Amino acid sequence: METRGLGRTGLSVSVLGLGGHAYLAGDDEKDFCLVDQRVALFRYLVSEGLTFFDTMWPNEVRLLAETFRRAGIGPGLQVAMQYANGLSQRNWRGNLRREVESRLEIMGYSSAPLFAVGVGNVGVPYSEIVAGVQALDALKAEGIVDRIGIACHQTCCYPLLARLIDEEAPIDYLLVRFNWKHAEARVHLFESAARRDVGLILMKVFCWDRGPRQWHRRISVFEPLVPQERIGRSAALSPAQRCLIWTLRQCPSAIAVCGMNAMWEAEQNVRALDHLDEEVDTSDFEAFAARLWTPDCVAEIARSAESPVTRRRALDILKSF
Question: What is the widest separation between alpha-carbon atoms in the chain?
Fold first, then answer.
C-alpha cells in the first residue's frame, strides 16, 4: 500500500486509514460483524500495508485496543486520538488533560502519537480554536502528546482553519470532512496546508451527508443493494472505488480514513489504491449525492442493505422525511 508523509508530523503512513471503530463487533443485532470477522479484517488490512487508525470517542479506543490484542497487532501502527467536539463544550479546558490521559491508559501508551481536539457542532470563535491549539501545545511540551491537530466537520469553519495555518499556529495536522459533495476544503485548506506542511486526513469519504445537523445520515451513499456489488475483487471499479480514487487524487499529500466493517469493503478499498494514477469517471456521482435525500432510494436501502444496522439507520432516515 502506498504511503504518504503526513506533513510536519514526520510520520509516513498508509494512504488509507481505518476509522469507524464505534461500529461494534459481536453477536448482538446492533453489531456490524462477529468479533472473529473484525479481527480477520484488521489482520487483512495490516497485511496489505495499512498503518493508520483513527479514533474519536473513548469506547472506540477501547474497541480498537481490544481488536489489536485479539489480532496480535499493534507495534509500528499509528493511532490518532481525538477529544470529539471538545471546543464546543463549556469546560473543555478542564476536561482536556483527562480526555488525553484516559485514552493513553486504555492503549497502554505513555504519550499520544497524534491527538486532535474537535471544533464541534456549534459556532466556535477563532479565538477558541487558537486557545485549543495552545492547550494542546502545552501538553505536547509536557511530553504526553507527540503531535497535535484540529478535527472539523463544519465546512463553514475551514476559512478559520486556513487562517490558523497561515498565522503559523503550531499545528501538525488537520482532520477534515472532504468528499465529492462537500469539497470545500479544496478551496480553503489544501493550499494553506501544503504551504505550511500541515498534514491532512480526509474523512467522510463515503458518508457524504453525515455532518452537523445530519448525523443520522450514517450510511455510505454507495451502499450496495445486491450481492453482486459486494465483491471485493471485481475487474471493474465500483462507484465507491472511483470515489476513493477521486478523493485521494485531489490532494496528493493527504490520506483518507474510512470505516470498513466487511471483508469485501476492505478488499475493494485496497484494490482501488492500485489505480491512484488514473483519472476516474464521476459522471454518475450526482445521482449518488441525492440518494439519501430520496425516500424511494432510502427505502430500498432499508430493505436490501447487507447489515441490519444499516437497514435500521435507513428506517431512521425515512422517519425524517
Answer: 54
